Amino acid sequence: MACWSQGIHQLQVVLLCSLVLFLGLWQMS
Fold first, then answer.
1. pTM for this entry
2. pLDDT tens-place string over residues 1-29
3. How far does the chain reach from its first CA to its final CA, in angstroms?
4. DSSP at 26
């Protein structure tokens, strides 16, 4: 269970980082 929740947490971090990068690029253009 701990490994599963850790995988979900890593996925959320990756999604959050890509969302921030996407918004940053969108504002610069």
1. 0.63
2. 567 788 888 999 999 999 999 999 999 98
3. 42
4. H
3-state helix, strand, coil in the chain (%, to 5): 95, 0, 5
Dist. CA 23–CA 19, nearest whole Å: 6
Centroid of chain to Cα 19? 6
Q: Which residue has the tokens 């940053």?
A: 24
CA distances (Å), origin 4, targets 7, 8, 19, 21, 27: 5, 6, 23, 26, 35
